[in-house]
Structure formats: structure tokens, C-alpha cells
Amino acid sequence: MVKMAKSVTFSTSSSASNLSSPSFASLPASPLNQIFSQSMMEEALEAAESIIKKWDPNSQSYTKIISLFRHSRKEAKEFIRCVRDLRKAMHFLVSQDSKSDKLVLAQNLMQIGMSTLEKEFFQILSSNRDHLDPESGSGQSTISSNSEFEVFMEHDDDDEDDELKKAGESISQVEKASALVMSDLKVIAETMISCGYGKECIKSYKLIRKSIVDEGLHLLGIEKFKNSQFHKMDWGVLEHMIKNWIKAAKIGVTTLLRGEKLLCDHVFSTSIAIGQSCFNQIAKEAGLNLFMLPELVASKEKKPHHHHERIFKLMDLYAAISDLWPDIELIFNFDSLASVKTLVLSMLKKLKDSIHTCLKEFERTIHKDSSKELSPEGGVHKLTRTTMSFISSLSEYSRVLSEILTEHPLKINIRLLESYFTAPILEDEHVNNHACSVHLAWFILAFLCKLDTKAESYDDVSLSYIFLLNNLHFVVDTVRSSHLKNLLGEDWLTKHEAKLRSYAEKYEVAAWTNVLVSLPAKTSSKLSPEEASTCFKRFHAAFAGAYLKQSSCVIVDVKLRDELKVSIARKLVPEYREFYEKYSPMLRQDRNIEMLVSFKPDNLENYLSDLFHGTPILSVSSHSAASFLSSSSCFSIRCVKH
């Protein structure tokens, strides 16, 4: 055995499995395929002795330091033919005279020939990194079986012209080189195995290819960890490792290990048992090492840590491994590699459990929230932003969640939930997101109930409706602008938009009813100047009080804010305008006329248009307010210029 050359990385082209028998397999029929005669045996011995001794790796000639297959492909073809014929000659000699001197010669020649092929096999494996790199050929088009005749394209043999024409003319240079190398490896392996020297061939193959696979994983950043070392790691470090692992695993499985499997299957296609044994020793340890990180993560996250936000990296892991499962099943498809598939299936189960635990922890967080902090102006609560951000992010993982949540139906009053939510009919009947839709709808319902509880903490009823309006609008807007819309459906949006309108109506009643009722009913008799003056004063006081209170409130969404202001103005301004136009003329002689009619209808609209920015636009002097409250005199109200 020659000294090992520096090994290379990665493995074969995806087209490997499509390559049929090697070029040498289609050699013209040997006369020894027919009934052997003494003369045929002697001719085979003579031909074999000439070429085998020429390429004896222990000789002192130049052939000791050069490669037969690289030096002359025509001579390499002849070498293989002579070795095969030598094997048949040996069978003939054994049947005729097992103690023949010629049999001893044949055995010696066979040993030299196998030594030569072993050296060639090793050199081809160790010096053709580029042509056995899966990345160089995995994306290329399938090479037809006839392309193996490309091995002889440089030859001038007329006998081969017809065979060469059968080769695909569109094959790239990379594919040609890859097919050439793989053809050489396959024909050498077949020849050595058929001659009883498979052990030597397999030893070289496993030694080189295992080092290549191990080096490939190392270059991808796949490391071994001890449990104690891993469990001390900060989650931030693990997040980064998980992100890198997902990228590395895709290459490791679909390119490195899959390519190695294709190469192994191709080279040892004549013996499934040998191919399986080789790949087992090359890839088993690599497969177990590759999936060590997600296994440790799944085990680490099995117990709740009150960090439900970690669910997203767990789902990334689960999705990545699930996507790779068809390749994993194909690559590790025999019993000796069952431990790798068992590990992956166990890991997926643990990840499922961890993800479900995170979801339960998230729901508990909603129910247990007891924070008393509220926005004084009734704005969007911090909990609303974080909760809806989390739920909308969950919706992006609907496929993963549906797989998991199908196994964990909700333990709640389903009729209650169904009255609140009807899962939409999905366009793609093959995608079952129902379980995910139901769970996310339940999370939002639980959260809205929590918002109702928080709204009760406001002393002012109108402010509690502003709070509910802002927060429900944020929830609805989040659903409408995310994947949640597809999961919850238009019916959910319609119901909650109706609820928004209900909150707006209840707010108007709570905040502005006193202003409306301060005006006389249309059915009442005509008022005297004194009564009209009193009504003006009462309206001014009611409006000023409502305005000052409501102008400190905030409506976050511009469209919602404008719609609410328009709705209030439509109810209030026409009523006041009618009263103003009817009674203001009779008060012209009143010395307080300017005060009494300071709220002209047009001014009223302007004041209303400035509501819900969180800061009062009108100011009421403390003296005027105190004076009015104690003696029913008119508020002095002025517009603050900005």
C-alpha cells in the first residue's frame, strides 16, 4: 500500500446514482467468456504478465511513480481486461491442475495486479477532491448512463467511435470529469471485489472517505459538546449556534452525507452489503455528531424556564429537521444506521413537547398578568404590543404549530370558543391549519378578557372605553396586517370590527350625553330669554367639562381618531346649531352676550377637531372655572394657539 496522500473533502455528484455500469464493463467479449482451451489460458497468462509486471508498484521502472489511469486510459482499460481474463484463467487452471506452476504464476500476477489497483484506487480517491465534491455536481443535470463512454474520448480507436457518439453532448466539463473519476473507482472496486480482494479496496475507501466526511462537518462548524459544557451556555449563545446549525445541517445532510451515500452506492453497486457496510462506518458517527446540538437543545428546553420567547428557535429547529427528514430517511435507510434515525425521531418528539410547553407558559403569562400600570390617556398598553407581536410571530409558523397542536386539543369550552370564532375554510385543502387557528384565536380571546379586566381599573367610564377602543383596534390591525388574517379569517375581523364600533358608541354615550341633554328637547315650548340664557350657560359648562376631560385622552390610530371625532360632531353640532340660531338673537341685549354665545357652531367643530391628541387644546382659567362652578356663571374659554 502506498503512503496516504492528503485527503480531501466532501463527496460525489447527485448524478452518481444515475451512472450505469462503468466503461470497462462494456468491453468487447473476452474469448474466455466462451469455453476455455489450453491455448486461450496461455494467451491470457502471457498478456496479463506483460502488462501487470510493467505496472508493478514494487518495480524500479518509471511506472512506480506514475498513475496508470492518468498516464494512459487506453492502457488502463487493457490492464482491467487482462486482470479479469487472468481470474478466469485461474479458474480454468484450478479445474485442470491445482498444483500447476502456471497457477502459481497466475496467483503471483494477481497479487501484483491487485496491489496496482489498490494504489490506483487510493490515488484516485485522494487526488480528485474537485471531481468528487458534491457541490460541483449535485446541482447539475443527470448524466446519462452512456456518458461513461466519455472515458475513452481522447482515444483514436475506431472500435470506440460508435460508443462515443452515444454519449450526451451537453454534459458540462465538471460532469465529464466527475463521471470519469467515478467510473474509474467503480470499475476498480468491481474488479478487486470479484477477484477476492474486496477487503483491501474497502479499507482504502473507508479510510479516505471517513476523513473527508469528518473534515466536512468540521468545516461546517459542527462540534462535539459535553452535556455539562452545553447546559452552562447562555441562551443568547445558543440562539446563534442554532441559527448556524440550521444552515450547516442543510448542507451536511443534502450535500455532504447524501453525496457520500450516492458515491458509495455507485462505487459498490455490485454489492449492496459491501456498500452498506462502507457507508455505515463512514457516516454513522458523523450522523450522530451532526444531530447532537438539536438533541441537547431539545433536552435542555424540556422543562419550562418561563422564557416562552425561545419557542421561535425551537420551531426553527423543528422545521429544519422536519424538512430534512425525507433525505435523512433515504440516507440512513438500513438497519445498521437505524440509531441515527431513532435519534432524529426522538429529538423531534422532544422539540414538539418543548414547543407545546412554551405555548402553555405563554397562556399562563396572559392569565397571571396582574400589572396595575395603565396609560392615563387610555393609550395602547405595553402588554398589548408584546402579546400581539408574539402571537403574530407564532402565525408565521402555522405549519409547525398545526403538526404539534393537533396532538394537543384545547381543554376548554369549545362551544364558547366556536361562538366567538369560526375557523376559515382554507384554499389549500392539503394544508391543515385548523389546530393552529383555534389555538391562536383562543390566545387572543384570553388576552381580550384580560384587557376587559384592566379597563375596569379606570375611574372614568369613558376613559375605560377609550382604552378598550385603542387596544382592540391594535389587536384587529395586527391581525389584518399579518398572517393571522389567513388563519382567523374575515369573519373574525368582521366580528371584532363590530365590537370596535360598539366601544365607540358606548364611549360617546359615556362622555358626551351630558352635553347633549344640556340642550332643550325639540318638543319643548319656546324658551324665555332667561331660560335660553340658562341653557346657554348649562351647555357651555357641560361642553367645557367634557372637552377638558376628553382632550387629555388619546386615540392612537389617525383613521380611528378622525372617525370618532366626525361621529361626535354629527350628533352634537347640528343640535347646537339649531338651538344657537333660534335663541341667540333674543339675547343681543344681554350684557353678557359675548360670553353666552362664545361657542359659535363653527367654533364648536374646531374644538372637536382638536380632540384625542393627549393634550388639551382649550384652556379654562382656574378663576373662571371656580366662578362658574360656584355661581353658574359662564366659562371663559379661549383657543390656545400652537
UniProtKB/TrEMBL annotation:
<keyword id="KW-0268">Exocytosis</keyword>
<dbReference type="Pfam" id="PF20669">
    <property type="entry name" value="Exo70_N"/>
</dbReference>
<dbReference type="GO" id="GO:0015031">
    <property type="term" value="P:protein transport"/>
</dbReference>
<dbReference type="GO" id="GO:0006887">
    <property type="term" value="P:exocytosis"/>
</dbReference>
<protein>
    <recommendedName>
        <fullName>Exocyst subunit Exo70 family protein</fullName>
    </recommendedName>
</protein>
<dbReference type="InterPro" id="IPR004140">
    <property type="entry name" value="Exo70"/>
</dbReference>
<keyword id="KW-0813">Transport</keyword>
<dbReference type="GO" id="GO:0000145">
    <property type="term" value="C:exocyst"/>
</dbReference>
<keyword id="KW-0653">Protein transport</keyword>
<dbReference type="InterPro" id="IPR046364">
    <property type="entry name" value="Exo70_C"/>
</dbReference>
<comment type="function">
    <text>Component of the exocyst complex.</text>
</comment>
<feature type="domain" description="Exocyst complex subunit Exo70 C-terminal">
    <location>
        <begin position="243"/>
        <end position="610"/>
    </location>
</feature>
<dbReference type="GO" id="GO:0005546">
    <property type="term" value="F:phosphatidylinositol-4,5-bisphosphate binding"/>
</dbReference>
<comment type="similarity">
    <text>Belongs to the EXO70 family.</text>
</comment>
<dbReference type="InterPro" id="IPR016159">
    <property type="entry name" value="Cullin_repeat-like_dom_sf"/>
</dbReference>
<dbReference type="Pfam" id="PF03081">
    <property type="entry name" value="Exo70_C"/>
</dbReference>
